[in-house]
Amino acid sequence: MCGIIGYVGKRNTSKLLIDGLKKLEYRGYDSAGICILNNNNLTTIKRKGKIKDLEVVEGISKIKGNIGIAHTRWATHGEPSQINAHPHTDSKGEIALVHNGIIENYHSLKELLIQDGYIFTSETDSEILVHLIKKFYMDDLETAVKNALSYVEGTFGIAVLHKNENRIVVARRGSPLIIGIGENEMIFASDAIPIMDYTKRVIYLNDDEMAILSANDFKICKIDGEIVDSEIHEIKWSIDQIEKKGYKHFMLKEIFEQPEAMENVLRGRIKEGKIKLTIDFDVSKLERIVITACGTSWHSALLGKFFIEKHVNIPVEIDYASEYRYRQTIVKDNDLFVVISQSGETADTLAALRKAKADGAKSIGLINVVGSTIAREVDSGIYLHAGPEIGVASTKAFLCQVTALILLGLYIKQEKGEKLDQEILKELFNVPEKIKKCLNLSKEISEIAKNYTHSRNFLYLGRNNNFPVALEGALKLKEISYIHAEGYPAAEMKHGPIALIDEEMPVVFIATNSAILDKVISNMEETRARKGVLITITDNGNEAINRLSDKIISVPRTHEDLSPLINVIPLQLLAYHIADLKDLNVDRPRNLAKSVTVE
Ligand code: M6R
User: What is the pLDDT of residues 61-104, one digit of tens each?
Assistant: First the structure.
């Protein structure tokens, strides 16, 4: 999704901004631009396409100036084009602005501004902001921004320059902005990654706050004027955690980091047969749990439901955050509201959380990015400790989310005064080693993948707690290989999807040991009878599985209730290798964004 970076200090700003934009590429974008202030003159350069298309623009590296803003755009209003790219400027080129988010009342504001004689050049909602600020500008950018924003409905993370002021004004509502405090320099961005090269001391701007940044000074205040005393945080990640370290893609690196990621999420949270979590309120009387999330995080929520209902005997409802936020929902006294998000910035998940909290819910967040908006707004949280996830397709965050949900479920059971299943606790520590064994299958899976690079459709089938794994396997494949794929509960196939099965249809079955493995095998028989091509993930050398499968991927056996943590690994690898063999941009698939900060 759109990215912002800006700088004021002593460095070569053009180079710094371009380098920063490259670090934001993983978020997904279709155009980019920079604006640099020098000697009361704003130079703006933008291009459709990749940062490398911007980088080669003649003279861009030679632009002088120590203060500037830059942007990667992910189109919402208006097609990807040079004109629609940011920064936007007013018609005299006196003010430049970059914007993340969506201005909802832009139609009415645009009409008013046109009546006042302002001339629009782009199709974007963002351009109204620059004209609105211009309208209110009377020698003070801070006041002009405040006044303009008081008319705006919607979400924004903005950064604004005026040709006559050696400072940058930034503001946020619903779109993250992080300010890095350096030695005689300030660098800000929409996430921490481009800041970390320069400083690890950061301030997370809250909604309805703005900052006025100059090289040696900063001021944080509310958009309505009240001064805010913000806390300075230390970023704990290191730069080498966001390097590829010899892997061809971030996604592959992140798949291979999963044993360690799982150890990290478990670390210190199981001691002497007990679960240790820091939850700031009593969970012993819970009567219902509601979990909301999006995409892969929603799949982990569904897995959480299977685990918690079985082990903790509390009803769990799950909801897409995008649905929860707009439907009639009920919050009761003994409910717990759980949000799951890798980025901690997903707009729908954040809105669902705010709605539930406004209705009186107690909330817990399972979040990866420390200091993210959702992490700061939940009542209590469990950090995933997966480390930075750069590949757009989520892998290690999913594994950590599922592990964290298991811990949360067991913690609630313990607080209810019930005995924990020690076999599960023990086996959780064995899973990382078993994941390593799955990773050793990467070569074998890439050989299997060669058979399916031309497939147009895939089905993924699993039952019980491996149904969410089927959904996740299908999502991974479609995201990065652009092959249409659907996940279903295996037995549901006969109610419709079975019509699709023929000799052209690869069907991935998850057939690991479980109380209903025989039922899964029956579904495999039905598929085979329609000439489907079976790729089976199994921990079982069963004769029927061998006979029915075209390809078998053998995984280590674990406890049935933990099997999703193992079974998802070969599915991630299968998706990865198919996409890589097709020579696609695995880490930055088309149309997708790492952090979906608009609804
Ligand atoms: O950051 P979040 O976990 O809130 O993101 C939710 C989804 O946007 C995300 O999981 C998306 O589905 C991924 N691209 C999946 O690989």
Answer: 889 999 999 999 988 888 889 999 999 999 999 999 999 998 99
Query: Catalytic site residues?
Result: 2, 594
Pair of tokens at residue 441 = 């299958």
Same fold, 3-235 and 439-599: no
- Ligand 1, atom 4, residue with closest C-alpha: 341
**Model confidence pLDDT, tens digit, residues 541-557:** 899 999 999 999 999 99
pTM > 0.90: no
Mutate-to-test residue for ligand 1 from 596, 597, 598, 599, highest number of ligand atoms within 8 A of CB? 596
List beta partners, residue 188.
6, 179
Q: Which CATH superfamily is domain 3-235 in?
A: Aminohydrolase, N-terminal nucleophile (Ntn) domain (3.60.20.10)
Strands (E), 74-184: 88-89, 95-100, 156-162, 168-173, 178-181
Q: Are 377 and 346 in contact (CB under 8 A)?
A: no
CATH architecture of 245-429: 3-Layer(aba) Sandwich (3.40)
What CATH number does the domain located at 439-599 have? 3.40.50.10490
Q: Evaluate whether 311 touches 413 at the Cβ level (below 8 Å).
A: yes
